[in-house]
Write a structure and sequence with these properties.
Alpha-Beta Plaits, 2 domains, globular
Length: 247
């Protein structure tokens, strides 16, 4: 068997997330099926680093494949990309040791959440959340800073009572995007819970345009693990897995 590390980018709009599903179209499923068809293979062992949710995008998803196919990685890249739909592309492929696993030894994952304060161009609207309210960027930064460090994020993730919900966020920053006219919230950490980033962003953005919600409300909710006010989960279309770095 030959083992390769892939970097994959995709527009997640029309997919039911990354994870393979028998009755739904997913990124994992499309990658598998196009490989088997394009190379006339019977099996492919494939695992991704992050199970992005339905509607979430990626520019730096990391994937490991194991295959018996004996062709160069350059040919795999060329043929496979030509078989894939326009909203998925493999940007890199390199041979790696059999022991490499994309979910192990992660130093950091970088996600970026894009929002627009003015109605975006049609070409980019599916990659960011439009907020038709005035955003207090100073308050937004204060809210986001609350989540940096090691915390129990039980309130800010999908409820899974048996799961350890302590995680560490290494940094959160806000950066303008000149190309699209949007604003990106950049979140860096080694591991995230399901819906964690979208709930942090949703809470912080809501507080940034609602005077009735304060940064202290978000902090109390984080510390007490109890909702102070009803806070939304930010729409999936604004979230993108930007890159993954390994130790």
């Amino acid at each position: 068997m030959f083992t390769y590390k892939l970097t994959v980018a995709y527009d997640g709009t029309d997919y039911h997330g990354w994870q393979w599903q028998p009755n739904q179209i997913s990124v994992d499923r499309v990658l598998r099926e196009t490989f088997l068809s394009a190379f006339h293979q019977k099996e492919l062992f494939l695992v991704g680093a992050s199970r992005t949710d339905a509607g979430v995008h990626a520019t730096g998803q990391v994937v490991r494949i194991k295959t018996a196919l004996q062709v160069s990685p350059e040919k795999i890249l060329y043929v496979w990309n030509n078989a894939l739909p326009d909203d998925i592309v493999i940007t890199d492929i390199i041979p790696v040791a059999d022991t490499f696993h994309p979910q192990h030894g992660v130093a950091s994952k970088t996600y970026k959440y894009t929002f627009f304060t003015q109605r975006p161009a049609p070409q980019v609207q599916r990659f960011g959340l439009y907020i038709p309210y005035k955003i207090d960027t100073i308050k937004l930064a204060r809210c986001l800073s609350i989540f940096v460090g090691t915390h129990d994020f039980r309130l800010y993730c999908k409820e899974e009572p048996e799961k350890d919900t302590v995680r560490t966020i290494q940094s959160i920053s806000i950066e303008p995007c000149q190309k699209t006219g949007g604003v990106k919230i950049k979140v860096v950490g080694a591991s995230f819970l399901r819906y964690m980033i979208r709930r942090i962003v949703g809470a912080s953005l809501t507080a940034a345009y609602k005077s009735t919600i304060t940064p202290n409300d978000l902090k109390r909710a984080l510390l007490a693990k109890k909702l102070v006010k009803s806070l939304p989960t930010a729409n999936a279309k604004g979230l993108c897995l930007h890159k993954i770095e390994y130790k």
